[in-house]
Amino acid sequence: MLPIIDRHVLKQVSLPLAGALVIGLLMLLADRMVRLLDATLGKKNSFTAVFEMLAYLVPHYLGTALPAALFLGLLLGFGKMSANSETDAFMASGIGLNRMARPVIVLGALLAALSLLIIGWVQPHARYAYRSVVFDVQNIDVFYLAEEGVFMQAGERTFIIDRLDRGKNAFEHAFIFQDKGAEGSETVTAARGALLENAAGQRPTLQLADGHRLSFKERPAVTSPTPAVGETTEFAIADTPLGRLSKDIFRPRGEDERELTLPELFAALDKPPPKASREEVSSELHERLVTAASILILPFLAIPFAVGSRRSSRGFRTGVALVLIVLYNEIIHKGASASNNGIVSPYVSMWLPWLLLTLFAGWRYAATCFTLRNDVVSSFIDRAGDAVSGLRHALLRRSGWSAAQ
């Protein structure tokens, strides 16, 4: 059983952490859901595909939302205890901030390990699965969206159908043209046809009946003195696979660095995947490691901003803390981009900012937990908060709002 101190601190931090995590995920997924619905609406099983893609996006957004939720939970949880003078009561009874911070430091270590698992192993597989579903939607569903008497394009094939029965996926009078480039072309006409689902999960089959096929082995030359000769055949029934490829026969995972797990990234430093360079693999590897390592700093960074003796500046300190963490994340992303392009080493562009933030957080944490005087940063933030508050009151008096209240 956890001591009552640890249970109380974890309760104060966990509630805002969970709320921020749920709200953040819902907002991120809602924004993406609107775009996915716009791209798939009207297609067969569009809602099923959308929710499947959203499920594969959860690990991606969770890797972003988890550190932000932890930082916000620490700020709000310790800020609430400080505002209610609970931290003063604990310290008066001989329990210092360092002892109160012990459970959240352990919580940060556990969430860092969870984040490493998510971004190191779960995200690459989820990203590959998401791309396979997108591939599915972009290929097969063009046939489900076919309109009567309208030319449609699906890859290298142009087709038009007549008298479409969507309930049976059947149609009449089909014309299909496929341009094979230097290998010629193929034109198929059929009296009727149907799109047959494959229960095994492979790509569906387009079945044509009572048709003709005209094939050219090479592309006809416009300046050729002799006309091109094609091969004409008739068929009673012809089956051809069309549309999407299932996840079982989608291209192998690992086309680029974002689909590789951490061990695969280490191995790919010497042999990058087809669509990635060594710099891109190195940048992706270091960015994931820095992201997980950054979570370890958050308890030491958040607590000094959350607690303090001056209640009037608490909201301003929280705002400064949020701006600082957003700026840090932006620096890491820009550093990853620079490393990705081979401009600078990832140790300079990502690990150096991490080290500076670690030293800053450790210095402030030690000053807050083990000394009685405010550090230089706290004093500066308090003075800036007073200046902003005074400016706000002056503007309110000039506008008449202060008198109205």
Can you walk me through this structure?
The protein is an alpha+beta fold and 405 residues long. The chain has 2 domains: 4-137 and 254-373, no CATH class; 147-241, no CATH class. The chain has 11 helices and 6 strands. It has helices at residues 4-40, 46-83, 86-92, 97-139, 141-144, 262-268, 278-306, 314-340, 346-370, 376-399, 401-404, and strands at residues 152-154, 157-165, 170-179, 185-196, 205-216, 231-241. A hairpin with a 4-residue loop joins strand 2 and strand 3. The protein is elongated.
**Classification by helices and strands:** alpha+beta
Number of helices: 11
Could you list the spans in which at least 5 consecutive residues all have pLDDT below 50?
A: 243-249
Annotation, overall tally of beta strands: 6
- How is the largest sheet built, in terms of strand order? 1-2-3-4-5-6
Oligomer state equals single chain
Count of structural domains: 2
